[in-house]
beta-N-acetylhexosaminidase (Rheinheimera soli), 779 residues
Amino acid sequence: MRILYCLCLAFLWLSPVWAQPLALLPYPQQLELHQGEFVFTDKLRVQLPAGQPELKTAVKRFIQQSAIATHLDFTAHNGAQLLIRLDLAKTTTAKQTEAYQLKISSKQIQLSARHATGIKHGLHTLQQLIQRHSDKTVLPALRIEDEPRFSWRGLLLDPARRFLPIADIKRQLDLMAAVKLNVLHLHLTDDQGWRFESKVFPKLQQVGGKDGYYTQDELRELVLYAKERGIRVVPEIDVPGHTTALGLAYPELMTAPAPTVAEIHWGVHPAVLDPSNEQVYVLLQQLLSEVAEVFPDPYLHIGGDEVLPDRWQQNSAVQAFMQQQKLADVGALQAYFNRRVELILKSLGKTMIGWDEVLDDELPDSVVVQSWRGTESLFQAAEKGHAAILSTGFYLDQPQTAAFHYRNDPLPDAVSAPQSADINHWSGWNFQFERKRGSPVTGTLYLLQFISGSERVFIQFPDKMLIEAKAVQVNGRQTSFQFDSWMGPVKAQLQLTDTVQGKFVTGNAPYQLTGQAVARSEQRPLPLDFGRTLSPQAQQQILGGEIALWGELITPEIIDIRLWPNGFAVAERLWSPKSRDNEQDFYQRMELVQLWAQDFIGLKTRQQQIQGFKQLVPASHLADFLTLAETLEPAHYYHRLHEKSVAGLYHQQAQLNQLVDFLPAEHKTMRQFEQDLALWLVQEKPEQLRKLQHQLQLWQLSAERLSDLPELSATAVVFQVRQLCQSGLALLEHIAARQPLAVAERKTIRQQLDSSETIQQEMVIALHRAILALLQAAD
């Protein structure tokens, strides 16, 4: 694999001045390529600033991970080939702490920064730049000025729901450091588990950590491991809800009835601490003191999310307490609880973080708000003076394309308002669609038609910011468009009359949409709120963003498949300039960096997939299975959890060892096939056609070889892939020959597409999108 990675880089760097795109991710703020290259020798002389032993360790790690055939010499102070400088005299902001400057010439590598963290980032940039030829190892001559766009670039791991061994967390830390993520958020407690060792309250881990917990010494060592890589570790102890595990150990602290059995089901549960019980705060003072001593980071997360109020409302003692404290409702009761916890944390020298449910008018300004419900709560927090972190759109446990995460921005552009005088006519429709779990999604769609003949579409979901659709096409009553939502990317195909009918393909699976016309321009002014933006002061409150990898679908055996390479998209979005938004350029670099991380950092995405597939098919069929899997995707968004809920598998004991569990969110071969197809439909070059035919034939042959395999549970899916390949080849032939498609053949293909579009065994046949495009082109 290292040979493949090097060949890919060599292909990019054929010119005297190395051509872009360089295999850098995240991409630097400023980069200038120069003529020439630096050649590593068998001995690398390194000059380090005095009194910085951690930099010596970092350089050694850089050499080891990079597999450079050189010996380090830290004794030479003259003629150093790697010159590292620190300017500690300058005052630094959080961003400047991570900034670095890198200059590479044919004679020397100069790496300078204001803080050791910046040097570590610069060393990771150097790692990505290394190019190996048959006889030498080189770096391109260049100059880089770099610093992060956002200071908070995090990753949440959730060992509370499914335990993760320390070794697997350390591998994720290595990968985080490689792409300059700098905060590990550990969700240590929840309904299903308690992973923090308390020496004061040992029943917590004895009851909630039977399938695994971390000792305090293990966590201290993990914090040190992270610090060496420029990463902070922020713990989360989730209160007052998500506390079934806590309640099993100390039922006297819960609002009755206390939990009596361990919780294995996912979702939101009624167990909740009793805010009227003073002993709750005694426990939290002692427990959080332990947590604070193990985790030196200035921040500590208290959760605060998804608190079901039923037991508070039904408990006479709690109701009496609310009257005594003059608390108007359960929202005010949780606000009281939050302030009590915030005072505890303040006494421990910690700044409190909470999920966006903690936000209320009296929340102390010092509390950081983490948004999981949408940009709306992020903006609300910033406008109220709170530092804020975005996780909406960065949920990698919900499979999505990397492009979707790449487009997601903590500071999105405002929707521009149209000029009323330019609007010829507008119409609105209320719509809704049912999900298999949760309440229906409702919203309003507005179609604006302009005097110029163009159209714009806007979507308004309740309590959400206005969304403008892209790629709007109106053909009579048929309207199609695309937009990004909190659920993921959406492609709409609708028929708009007095009613609305059609579908929203959310991620890669459809929801059937229905609704009614509600208004038009003749009846009232356009009822839309355009252009919501943050003030410059509020924008400064946005610290950045954080990947969330919740544990329902995560085990150590598949964690890399779920997290990488899509985590690279988030890493770049949070570090690089907002203007760097070319998705094709990103994908090219992402694929190269994925190979690099696999070879030199320990990324196991491909390895975990192969190991998983070996459990499903004999070794003799593995190659065909890998090829066939290129046509399949896990159902995106929360479709998988909804499917599991319906099937009674929405719980901790449901095995994650099926075909869908080993599929990446998207496959580069399928993405390339769709791009090649779109190009051929425009250019119709013979060599493009042959490439498309060859790929379909490969998939078809693999499906044929696997079709009768008794060990395979997904035989129906395999058969459908085989049919789609046959139909695709036939459609290519018809289009190339400009021959009309017979009515019966069109009907057969349409039936195949309708069947393959649906979710099967929590999967979607991604190939159906390309075949649908061919069928539409054959019209």
Notes: The longest strand covers residues 509-520. Confidence is low (pLDDT under 50) at residues 10-19.
